[in-house]
Amino acid sequence: MPDTDFGVAKKDKTPPCAGFFIQAALQELPVRRTLLIILSMALAACSANPKALYQEQVVTSPTPLAEHPAEAIRLLQAEPLPINPSWPFPQWKITANEPRLKIGNTIANFRVFSVELKQGTSNQIAVNSWCVNACLGFSKYALTPYLLLVDQQGIVIAEGFGQITGSVGVINQVLSSTVPKNGTYYLIVAADNRTPGQNIVTDSVMLVGSTGLGTPMQVGMGSYPFGTIGPYLDTSK
To answer: Using an 8 Å Cβ cutoff, are 78 and 186 in contact?
Structure first.
């Protein structure tokens, strides 16, 4: 089952590391000063250093480690891949608790999805990945998944990042493929941990000042080892 649905309101979006100080500020400081403190803490929300996270929670994790895609699809129960889902898209989290897969010289936590595909049909598998911590903070990050489509024996049919588009807030990927025969195939969605923290997308964001005039500012998102994904099969194209 999906871990969450995008757009569902959370009871408390305050970064955990800031909660105590915000509560104290509300009790002791004037309203104006309190609002300034809350805003500052929200901007500095607690996104951990992605390189440190990779070393501390991915490389040294006790979760099972698959050497090959064939082993990966046996380690984890596959979730049915959604087909043309409506908004909000079903979502799953990739965390340090998931099994890991060796991809080249790196290690990545992953999820597995199953889907029925037909021979000779051009398949468009789309994956959305959202900004971590609701994009709060000066440093913004997102998981950029590495995608592998494999058959029941674990033979790779298609792999890579596909066609990537995106903006601050969400990464969109589409992996195109055709399969040699009708049957069940598996989509492995794994974190890209080749260069944790490296910029993956830059977008121009308009900032509105006191004069009401918009000022463009370049804002980027860096690669993160964990995150939230929304994969699905797109048959509309």
So the answer is: yes
> How many domains in the chain?
1
Q: Does residue 17 fall inside a structural domain?
A: no
* 8 Å CB contact between 36 and 130: no
- Tell whether 77 is covered by a domain: yes
* Out of 35-44, 97-106, 167-176, 207-216, least confident range: 35-44
| Residue-number span of the structural domain to which 209 is assigned | 4-9+49-234
**Cβ–Cβ under 8 Å, residues 124 and 237:** yes
Residue 181 in domain: yes
Structure tokens of 119? 């021979």
At position 218, the amino acid (one-letter code) is Q
Note the pLDDT tens digit of each residue in 194-214: 998 888 766 544 444 444 555
HSE (side-chain half, CA atoms, 13 Å) at 147: 28
Whole-number Å distance between alpha carbons of 32 and 114: 52
Return d(Cα 69, Cα 98) in angstroms, integer. 15
In a domain, 139, yes or no: yes
Q: Which residues pair with 219 in a beta bridge?
A: 203
Output the pTM of the full model.
0.76
What is the helix (H) or strand (E) element at residue 103, kind and residue range? strand 100-103
Q: Are 66 and 154 in contact (CB under 8 A)?
A: no
Alpha-carbon gap, residue 27 to 34, rounded angstroms:
9
- The β-bridge relationship of strands 156-160 and 163-167 is unpaired
Structure tokens of 65?
A: 């480690």
> What is the rounded distance in angstroms from the CA atom of residue 205 to the CA atom of residue 70?
42
